[in-house]
Amino acid sequence: MLKLLFHTQVTLGLGQAAAVAVLAIIVAQFASRRGAKIGREIPLVLLRGIVQILLVGFLIVALLHGPWWTGIPVLIVMIFIAATIVRRRVPELSGAYTLSLLCMAAGAGGVLTVMTVLGIVEPKIIILVPVGSMVIAQNMNIQSLFLNRFLGEVRSHRGEIESALALGAAPDHAAEPYLRASFHASLIPATDNLRSLGIVWIPGMMAGMVLSGTSPVYAALYQFVILGMIFIAGAVSCLTATYLVPRRVFTPQQQLRRLS
Amino acid sequence: MTTNVAVLEARDLSRTLAQPGGPKSLLRNVGFRLDQGQVLAVLGPSGAGKSTLLRMLNRLDEPTSGAVLLQGVDTRDVDPRTLRRRIGIVMQQAYLFPGAAAANVRYGPAQHGILLQDSQVADLIQQVGMAGYEDRDVSTLSGGEAQRISIARALANQPEVLLLDEPTSALDDVSKQDIEHLLASLVRERNMTCVWVTHDVAQAGRVSDLVLRLEAGHSIAFGTSQELLHA
């Protein structure tokens, strides 16, 4: 139906985006009536999302003609911005920005570096930036889930943690069951994605590769590689967080900080 | 010449919280000293600062000013983990760790590299009136039974001082009496120095040698229970 109204590819795309945005806002309003306070947030998030993705589209067009390494600063900036977004999810955690930055540098940054050096990710700007952004974005989600869950666990198990401290446990040891639970929970979406790959969903990137003429078998294998990278990056970043986050919730005197 | 060093001494302890609306004083210039085997009851209404005081004694919270001395040594000069082994605490709720009762009792010593033998665990559990409960999953215990295991868990560290943060207030009347009787007899048998926080004046009269009354973070009376409660 939209094709009848819009005659160029760009205007058609804008029309499709507007239709999806309107539907999302309607759903958000219904959700708000059920107490899910997202009615105001969703329009802003949608607007922000479309502006950002358009800017990236223009950026990739501009970068296409440059050398491959110009993708590196782009990915580094993405990690910095992702850390800002994670920090907003856990405002009560002091030093959340630096913590997230370090964890995602180890996770997404480390995995992309290794994969590029090994030649699994081709050092071409048209591949490096989109693939890198997918890994970083998913790493950001996993990192947010981990920290959010961990702070929730600490809040609801304050008594148990302080009991452990009071018996002479080291802070790391007192927090260990909750770090373990958070690690497991934060990786559930990534493991479920791997588990359901090809059965429940066919990822967009694979579909795109097939549509552009790539062998479906290679596209499937490459999609598996991407999801594997997302899982490894998430696991490495959360593993790094399990070492770093106790220092943020305990004082140097080994006391549990008050979380708002 | 011998000097009489208190087992536990609090000197001008204060704690103030920095808050957006301005600092909030939780405790101001509170002090006491306890010799070996003395039981201090800390009395006061909710919000008086009783638990705040207790938490500063084993450094679960940090005083803003003042000092706590254990056997004459400033607790800030003692490693917190060592300090907490030497000053045990039983909280209002048991907060047992998931698993068997025996694993809970072993927890404290294990943090310091000591593995309690089965017989030692059984002995501790028997001392709190729970003989045969070693393998029981703690999720199946009643409130009173859980509190008994938490007492055994605190005693397993062989603390020099025992802090009791309203240990009977979350229990039913029967369990309350049982736990009070158990704690009082354990403290007397072991000649332990003890700080017992309670809002129950009658309980304070039954279990303590000394009484500290707190109100809105201030110490309003400190003396023997004979002077303050039985006069």
What does this structure look like?
The complex is a heterodimer of chains A (260) and B (231). By secondary structure, chain A is mostly helical. Chain A has helices at residues 2-5, 9-33, 41-63, 71-89, 96-117, 125-156, 158-166, 171-186, 188-196, 204-211, 216-244, 246-249. The mean pLDDT of chain A is 88. Chain B has 231 residues and is α/β, with parallel strands linked by helices. In chain B, the strands form two sheets. Chain B has a six-stranded mixed beta sheet, sandwiched between helices. In chain B, strands 2-1-4-5 form a four-stranded antiparallel beta sheet, covered by helices on one side. In chain B, strand 9 (210-215) and strand 10 form a beta hairpin. Chain B is globular, with a radius of gyration of 18 Å. Chain B starts with 7 loop residues before the first strand and ends with a helix. Chains A and B meet through helix 7 of A and helix 2, helix 3 and helix 5 of B.
* Second-tier CATH architecture of chain B: 3-Layer(aba) Sandwich
The N- and C-terminal alpha carbons of chain A lie at a distance of 50 Å
SS class of chain A: mainly alpha
Here the CATH topology of chain B equals Rossmann fold
Give the tally of structural domains of chain B.
1
Number of strands of chain B: 10
Question: What share of the residues of chain A lie within helices?
Answer: over 70%
Give the H and E element order of chain B.
EEEHEEHEHHHEHEHEEH
Indicate the structural class of chain B: alpha/beta
How much beta of chain A, percentage-wise? under 5%
Unreliable segments of 5+ consecutive residues of chain B: none
Which stretches of chain A are low in confidence, meaning pLDDT under 50 for 5 or more residues running?
none
Helices and strands in order:
The complex is a heterodimer of chains A (260) and B (231).
Chain A: H1 2-5, H2 9-33, H3 41-63, H4 71-89, H5 96-117, H6 125-156, H7 158-166, H8 171-186, H9 188-196, H10 204-211, H11 216-244, H12 246-249
Chain B: E1 8-17, E2 24-34, E3 39-43, H1 50-57, E4 65-70, E5 73-74, H2 80-86, E6 87-90, H3 101-111, H4 118-127, H5 143-155, E7 161-165, H6 173-189, E8 193-198, H7 201-207, E9 210-215, E10 218-224, H8 225-229
Parallel strand pairs in B: 3-8, 3-9, 6-7, 7-8
Antiparallel strand pairs in B: 1-2, 1-4, 4-5, 9-10
Helix pairs in contact in B: 3-4, 3-5, 5-6
